[in-house]
Design brief:
The chain has 294 residues and is of the alpha/beta class. It folds into 2 domains: 168 residues, Rossmann fold, CATH 3.40.50.1100; 97 residues, Rossmann fold (3-Layer(aba) Sandwich), CATH 3.40.50.1100. The chain contains 8 helices and 10 strands. Helix 1 packs across helix 2, helix 1 packs across helix 5 and helix 2 runs parallel beside helix 3. This is Cysteine synthase. Its EC number is 2.5.1.47.
């Protein structure tokens, strides 16, 4: 019996690809992060950032917290801040799906929408101005070491244990880069030969959750030496694969998960043998008002 909803964060299942992977000598597993109570991989980082901040005294119950988000981190922070009784404002571009906005508000967070013309960078600038001028405390997932450490402590060990140490390749979309940084650090400590593959969008693509950051916005937690290879996927490839994951594997996820799966399958086709784990970072139900599954 769980004492808190927060006890259900982590320990998500691995699901073997039965249809999409055509290489009989490669096992491709999908790490089902939508099974977290907040519906995404970001539950892990949000919990570690808030819990560790409270334990160190960096965050006080009386603080006004703020964070810019494209969606999943905001939902996770709203849920966990509500459990801890914290006051949080979440800042998102106005073109975020209404499911995300409504979910954050349901958990009790204040949601501020910024112009979609300036994207997540504009939301980050707005949050920074509130910190500088109004005394807010920023969680700052892009520079907060508790982000990647959440995956060092949980995601990496789970994957290592569930594959019985046989994993050869780890594939993850790169947004804040917390997932790939923490998981890479742990897996490389167990076996330096595990190849870490980061997924980025092609230059003409817009894929929520996968970014090529301008230099001035590059997450401070990112360490390029922890990624062995990057693979680019297009927006259309990510959309098509999200639909195929749902229809052919029964895995209902968002566009960034589709992008990671594109890279994982492309990789599987090139290997003589191997065990690949690809992150499915969230659930598809928070995209139903978009045209992803239209």
């Amino acid at each position: 019996m769980s004492k808190s909803i927060l006890d259900l964060i982590g320990n998500t299942p691995l699901v073997l690809s039965r249809v999409l992977n055509k290489n009989p000598n490669v096992k491709l597993f999908f790490k089902m992060e939508g099974h977290n109570p907040g519906g995404s991989v970001k539950d892990r980082a949000a919990l570690n950032m808030l819990k560790s901040g409270l334990e160190r005294g960096d965050i006080l119950k009386t603080d006004k917290l703020i964070e810019a988000t494209s969606g999943n981190t905001g939902i996770a922070l709203a849920m966990i801040a509500g459990v801890y009784g914290l006051d949080i404002e979440l800042v998102m571009p106005e073109n975020a799906t209404k499911e995300r906005v409504q979910t954050m508000r349901a958990f009790g967070a204040k949601v501020t929408l910024t112009s979609s013309d300036v994207g997540i960078e504009g939301a980050r600038d707005y949050a920074e101005s509130k910190v500088q001028n109004e005394g807010y405390i920023m969680i700052n997932q892009f520079a907060n070491d508790d982000n990647w450490k959440a995956h060092y402590k949980t995601t990496g060990p789970e994957i290592w244990e569930d594959t019985h140490g046989e994993i050869t390749h780890f594939v993850s979309a790169m947004g804040t880069t917390g997932t790939i940084m923490g998981t890479s650090t742990y897996l490389k400590e167990q076996n330096s030969e595990v190849e870490i593959v980061g997924v980025q969008p092609t230059d003409d693509s817009s894929i929520p959750g996968i970014r090529k950051w301008p230099k001035e916005y590059l997450p401070k937690i990112f360490d390029a030496s922890k990624v062995d290879r990057t693979m680019e996927v297009s927006q259309q490839e990510a959309v098509d694969m999200a639909k195929r994951l749902a229809k052919e594997e029964g895995i209902f996820s968002g566009m960034s998960s589709g992008g990671a799966a594109v890279a994982a399958l492309r990789l599987a086709d090139t290997l003589e043998h191997g065990v690949i784990v690809s992150i499915v970072c969230d659930r598809g139900d928070r995209y139903l008002s978009s045209d992803l599954f239209a």
